[in-house]
Amino acid sequence: MSVNSRDILELRNRTGAGVMDCKKALLEAGGDLEKACEILRRKGIEIAAKKKERTAREGLIGAYVHTDGKIGVLVEVNCETDFVARTEEFRNLVKELTLQIAAQAPRWISPEDVPEEVRKREESFYWEELKESNKPEEVKRKIVEGKMKKFYEEHCLLEQEYIRDPEKKVRDLLVEAIAKLGENIVVRRFVRFKLGEGDDE
């Protein structure tokens, strides 16, 4: 079968993938745009996994101050080369991350960054909630796991829903950028200031 250029353009706009990759994905999906998106997303995850171990020391520090001057964000995002750091795509990614942090106020980058004492405190709280329940232990465990997953989705940047597209996580945004730019990309650190707000840790 053949695919038309309109579908290729639509898929490219949705995913940011190259023209040939879009064409191959559409052919593999039998012309189904949604399936082609999924194929490209899977491919992006595979590419990202392969590049994960590569050192990322270049990049940019992005800054954002909300129009009312009451919220400010600084974020360091690393890539492998200065060439990629200067591209419009990378700059846009950094900008989107500053907006995400300003809007959603994450506390950590990923679940791995959550301090052990905080993790234990949350788990203990959820177990305490279920103490009087007659549910089997395995069911309780799954409930606690579900609540912890929700906790990470609320407080960890990479697990949050992307503000412009709730179907995506911020992690997906990074994976897509890695697949498109061909380099490892890492959110190194961030800080969010809110006027009059102290450190609540």
TrEMBL record:
<dbReference type="InterPro" id="IPR036402">
    <property type="entry name" value="EF-Ts_dimer_sf"/>
</dbReference>
<dbReference type="GO" id="GO:0003746">
    <property type="term" value="F:translation elongation factor activity"/>
</dbReference>
<keyword id="KW-0648">Protein biosynthesis</keyword>
<comment type="function">
    <text>Associates with the EF-Tu.GDP complex and induces the exchange of GDP to GTP. It remains bound to the aminoacyl-tRNA.EF-Tu.GTP complex up to the GTP hydrolysis stage on the ribosome.</text>
</comment>
<feature type="region of interest" description="Involved in Mg(2+) ion dislocation from EF-Tu">
    <location>
        <begin position="81"/>
        <end position="84"/>
    </location>
</feature>
<dbReference type="InterPro" id="IPR009060">
    <property type="entry name" value="UBA-like_sf"/>
</dbReference>
<protein>
    <recommendedName>
        <fullName>Elongation factor Ts</fullName>
    </recommendedName>
</protein>
<dbReference type="InterPro" id="IPR001816">
    <property type="entry name" value="Transl_elong_EFTs/EF1B"/>
</dbReference>
<dbReference type="GO" id="GO:0005737">
    <property type="term" value="C:cytoplasm"/>
</dbReference>
<dbReference type="Pfam" id="PF00889">
    <property type="entry name" value="EF_TS"/>
</dbReference>
<keyword id="KW-0251">Elongation factor</keyword>
<keyword id="KW-0963">Cytoplasm</keyword>
<feature type="domain" description="Translation elongation factor EFTs/EF1B dimerisation">
    <location>
        <begin position="50"/>
        <end position="197"/>
    </location>
</feature>
<comment type="similarity">
    <text>Belongs to the EF-Ts family.</text>
</comment>
<dbReference type="InterPro" id="IPR014039">
    <property type="entry name" value="Transl_elong_EFTs/EF1B_dimer"/>
</dbReference>
<dbReference type="InterPro" id="IPR018101">
    <property type="entry name" value="Transl_elong_Ts_CS"/>
</dbReference>
